[in-house]
Amino acid sequence: MGTSAEPEEDSSSRRDEEWPEAEKAEKLARGAALKWASAVFYRPDKLEGLGHYRSREAQRNSSIQSRLKSTVQSHLEGVSSGLEQLRSAAGDMRSVRRDLCAVRWHLLGSAEGFQRLAPLRAVVMEHAQMAAVVRALPQLSSVHELLAQSLHLLHGQQLLEAHAGLMALERLRDDISSQLHCSSSLPNDQALGVVESFFGGLQELSDALAQQLWRVVGGSVRLVQEDPALFVSAVRIIEREESVDDALLLGSRAHRFPAPGRPKAWRQRFYQVMQETIAAAHFKAAHGDVKGPGLGRHLAALQSDILAELRVVKDLMVQCCPPHYDILSICTRMYHQGLSDHLQDILSRDLDKQEIFMLLSWVLHVYHSPEMMGHPDLLPEVDVSTLGPLVSPEVVEQMERKYVAKVKASVTEWMRRTLEVEFKEWFREEEPEMDHLGFFQSALPVIVMQMLDENIRVASLVTGSLQQKIYAMAMDELEAFLIRLREALGECGKEHQKDRARPKHYISYLLAVLNNNMALRLREALGECGKEHQKDRARPKHYISYLLAVLNNNMALSSSISTLHPGSASLAKPAEIPSSLKTALDRTQKKACRLLLEELLLDLQPLSVQLPSRKWLPGAQLVNSMCEVIDKYMRDFSHVRKPIFTFLLAESEHLVMNHYVRALMEKKMVCRSAEERSQLSTRLHQDACQLRELFHNLGLAESEQTLEVIFALQELIRLQDPALLSLEVLGFMTKYPDIRSLHRTPAGNRRCCGVLPSVQYASLQALQRTVSHFRGTSEVCEAPAPLGLRGDPTCEQHGDEHVSILLDLRGDVSKEVRNVVLEMMAQNPQSLPENYQPIFSNILVPAPELPFCLRKGKCA
């Protein structure tokens, strides 16, 4: 069995290799049978039907085998019939080959006979040519007559008849040329040359007709209104020529001899002539005609002419042209593209701001408006939005930047001139004008605001982005203007210090500056005015008045800045002023306020030299004089608006207090007796009461005054028992902690009256120079500048020196009591409470005398 199984396995393996599909089918069949048998005989009761299943499967197998046998038999019969047909076809092919070989040998033997027929072939060709000439003789004899007749018709504007003659002559010429070409594979060049020379006038007729057509097309807008028949004839001729071109190039005649002068492409030339006509009529203006006012007239002419011509095209020309010409869309595109190129050329030139504004406004608003391309007569057929922008967004942005630069240069120059005029007015012999409330002011803020507002409003007519750019530029220019105003105030102040009679109304003009208070280049002008005033205080004559006018103007303008913001009318609350502009406003106000307070200080300084002194003790003349000076200045300050007046009043009160206490600290006097101490105490009390009453009557509440420190000093002087000084000084230290310890004045403890930062310390610069001279040194210890008036220097001063001077002023304090007081101060250091307003830390005292071994006296 082993030997018999091996051949079977080999044969099955070979069969599997030859027929892998059969192996796969057999495996699938076995698997299916096994699955079916397991499902059928899974239950024991099914085993009884095993014989039935066996007989059924045997019948099915026999049926399948019979069908397979019949199928194989039919295939075998088909194969045998196919083989028989192949054998028959092979025999036929051999027979055909033999016949072809015989024909080939016969042709080779007849070649010499064909060569002897060549003269006959030439005679036949010549006969055919002569026959064609004979048939065309009647037409050829009338060629020159037809040419002359067609030219005559052309000169008589009978375009269709002239073109009919032209086409007849062209057909005759083309037929003769075609016959000459077809009669031989190589046509006679001489014969073709004769034909061309005979029909030489035909090309001239065609060119003359073309020129006449282009003249008609060039005046098409006028002709469709006056004589549309002529334009229609031209269009029909162009259509005929286009159909001939298409037939020659694409139709059944494309294989013929190429006709001379074809294709004419007159339809493309038709569009080209129309475009050239439009450009020559509207877009070839001379350079001088589009400058200044001429540009506005040119744009207005473009608007009216283009609209009128497009209406003619839509209403009349469309009816004269075939629909596939789409003449309205093509003309719209021609106008749009020509206008775009024309505007690009104009924008590339050096334009001023008015020209740029006109162009931008026209391009962005007029062109698409109902007055031009959006006219109801053109809609909906004309839609330029599909043609792209007339000027690219990049060019619009570039022109907006150029416009802003032009406006900025104009505004800068205009503000410079305005400031020069304002500066000269400060030195006039007249006070500045007043408003209906009696506040000093000038026309400067109104003029400047109107100018800036006008520029912003004009820019809003173009685009919102241009309006924003102009607004930002205006804010920058306002800030720069305020810087120049402050500098001008400084110059004016210097001139006034040199001659206090100049300007005559110095205070009035300072108040006017405060009233104006706006972000302009007023700061530089204020600086110049201050310098002039320092040189000669008699100049300007109305120095104070014009400073007040500057302040009033500054306030009026600062309140108007928010109205410049685009869309401010629709905002629920005023637009916020830029921080840099706020800074410029504050610095200008500070400059004007500082000049006013320095002016007050200069008038108080001669009076402060007299206190404390024994001449000052018995009478009230000195404080009366101080009150008169203060009252005079407050009357001047009343011409400034209330917020700034309140601030100036508070700063003046603090300045007087500081000035008064500083004078007490200069060691000019030492009480010799209890009576003098009583007189000094009484004088201090009376002066403080009088000054407090004065400022109270002027409108400054006692709770806002700082004169209380004079009352505290008076209590320290009035004390009769020196042994109680330590307790009194301790109470004084508790109330005024900056009188003791070395410290730096924190920035948060600087004075601020709610309207403007304090300028009191900068205003005391002149007194500091006096103190430095008293101390025997040229160095000046500057008090901390409030809120950015000057850097942030710190004045370091030992508080026990202030107390020592006060003890010296009493004149009855022994060394032991002094040591007790100073020791008590050292044991009870005080810290500055939050929001404390420093007083003594900003008051310098004379340097203590150094110990020396010799007595003071004259040299022996």
From TrEMBL:
Residues passing through the membrane, by range: none
> Record's Pfam families?
Sec6 (PF06046)
GO CC terms of this entry: exocyst
Q: Which domain of life is it from?
A: Eukaryota
Biased-composition ranges for Acidic residues? 1-10
GO molecular function terms here? SNARE binding
State the residue spans of region: Disordered: 1-26
**Which GO annotations describe the biological process of this protein?**
exocyst localization; exocytosis
In this chain, composition skew of type Basic and acidic residues spans: 11-26
Which family is annotated? Belongs to the SEC6 family.
Q: What is this protein called?
A: Exocyst complex component 3-like protein
